[in-house]
Prior knowledge:
Layout: E1 8-9, E2 14-16, E3 23-27, E4 36-41, H1 46-62, E5 67-72, H2 95-106, H3 114-117, H4 124-136, H5 140-154, H6 162-171, H7 176-183, H8 186-201, E6 206-207, E7 209-213, E8 218-223, H9 228-239, H10 251-255, E9 261-262, H11 263-270, H12 277-284, E10 290-295, E11 298-303
Parallel strand pairs: 4-5
Antiparallel strand pairs: 1-2, 2-6, 3-8, 4-7, 7-8, 9-11, 10-11
Amino acid sequence: MSNESMMCDLETGICGVSEEEAMQEINLNHVGKKVTIYYATDPICSHCWALEPVLHRFVEEYGHYFTLEIKMGGLLANWNGFSDGANGIQKPSDVAGHWREVGEHSRMPIDGSLWHDNPILSSYPPSRVFKVIQSTHLGKEHEFLRRAREAVFAFNQNIGEDDVLTDIVNQLGLNGKEVVEAAAQQSAQDLLEEDFERVASLGVRGFPSIIIVNEENQGMKIVGARSLETYVQALQQVLGADLQPKQITSLEQKLKEGHLLFSKEVEVMYDIQKSDIASYVKSELTEHTYHVGHILNEMYIKHI
């Protein structure tokens, strides 16, 4: 993807080229005979962070129907020669306001002030770490991506820097120094390039993009951060059958998975109104087993 793909649109929920319909029928004859969902994303994609509550609910309830494959798309190679005068973005600091706007709109908190004093120079370093973990500790890459997003969006940490990435990988119980060093090798870039090629072959031009393909090699492409109903409808159309959602894991079990849960995520997962979130958390969790905090006026909970 080119640097132009970094641009994000608040209304469409797309980081990238936005002149696309939200849902499109596609045919990918080269895809294997299984139900697969390809999620084209990037660690610093703000609308991908905004999608987290809906995507987690979708996977929780309907994940038994498909295999999820996360593909890195290369949102920001570097800032050399980058310019987008139409959107008022000529330099890294211009991104800060946009990020804050996405955070306020989605209620998934985004600080964004690092773009002023310690800007991310490329999204490739965390993307390569993702690929290294995926190739050596399959399954752990999902947790890495989530923690990396918490770090950059909510806690304003530069996930393009080795020390930040090392700390995040250490939190997974892996050797952060070794993983980050491996991510600096050409072999890691080769893995990342394979993702770029796959994303391009799927016709992705912006993030987030969800591509659902069935055993007949036909499916749907959903562009931008959309509602839960959009993804459920698309999956049902691809499968050609009614869907039976699984029971959602309890809030207590969800917290034990390790990462934070923001108020918006709990609201979407359990169909809770914002005004009822505090009482719901108190009723579902045992006292002294969790911590409640606030970031940018949004509540979060964490297992302790």
